[in-house]
Amino acid sequence: ATPTAVMVGTGVGATNGILIKGGEPLETTHKLKYVVFDKTGTVTHGEPRVSRVAMFVQSKVCSFIEIMAIAGSAENSSEHPIATAIVKYAKQTLKLESLAKVSDFQAVPGCGLKCKVSQIESILENVDKEAVKNRKNQFGSLRIKIDNPIFGNDGAMASKTYDVLIGNREWMNRNGLDVTPEMDQAMNEHEEQGHTAVLCAIDNRVAAMLAVADTVKAEAHLAVHCLKEIGLEVILLTGDNKKTAKAIAQQVVGIKRVFAEVLPSHKVKQIRILQTSGLKVAMVGDGVNDSPALAQADVGIAIGTGTDVAVEAADIVLIKNDLLDVYTAIKLSRATVRRIR
Ligand code: ADP
Ligand code: MG
């Protein structure tokens, strides 16, 4: 490639908020066949909100207030977008300023977390139980329905340490807990709408299901449409549940092919599998989890607001965080290569 054409190409990119790290990615981009999008934080905003809390009657281990205090405290040690949503919801619903003490915290990427929560009575001292009952339906545009709220025996909570697990079905099974048809059904209902459902077990009994809903970026559908129109195949790649991923991919953004329930460590393997065809693959992502896949892809594309690790691993950075810029980058690369030849 002539240095002049590369300079013009990267320059035009830069003025449009598309940072192309050199001539090689600029040239490879015109040969792309596959564009693989990460889901959470890339196709969606990555800021899910709690859309439902369902308590399982047979458990009766804890009241709604206790469950939210325990789940909120446990998730306060995690950085996952699901965790952020649960922490925020727990604090808002219970009007808590601080959360309870967590020990022995362990997070397994793509599965969930495990920890011990103690001293919840100290944070629940000032919770107004009537106020919680009245506030429970008022969150955002999403309807919060609380099934079978069992409010605790007033003020009589013993000082106790709870064993807590929060995560997907697989995570419960791995820890020796059964997911009953009732629980599975509760999760399905939300997954079919594109929400992510997780289970919360307290002292080895599955006590509740928490569903969180993330919103799809406004331009996602148009970006996918434009990419398909210029002959690319678009794929969604996520650690999330198959039903959730399919609902978002097919109904919302128009992506037919979905690789779901892919553990973070296996995202890079999925890219390699696509590359065995000999065709060029782009990966678009934002997270720390995505960076090995961004590096493996023929062209790694990071969202500008993504984590530093992702931005560093990528060949192209979308400064404006606009998914349509994936399309713009490909058009720009094609125009540049035409100029070179
Ligand atoms: P994505 O690729 O869409 O970013 P992840 O691989 O991060 O998804 O997560 C996959 C699944 O693992 C989640 O949908 C959830 O079921 C479970 N999970 C991971 N971390 C947590 C957590 N902190 N709390 C609850 N569930 C979690
Ligand atoms: Mg992500």
UniProtKB/TrEMBL annotation:
Signal peptide: none annotated. It is found in: Golgi apparatus, trans-Golgi network membrane; Membrane. Belongs to the cation transport ATPase (P-type) (TC 3.A.3) family. Type IB subfamily. This is P-type Cu(+) transporter. The lineage of its organism: Eukaryota, Metazoa, Spiralia, Lophotrochozoa, Mollusca. The chain holds residues 706 to 1046 of 1182 of the full protein.
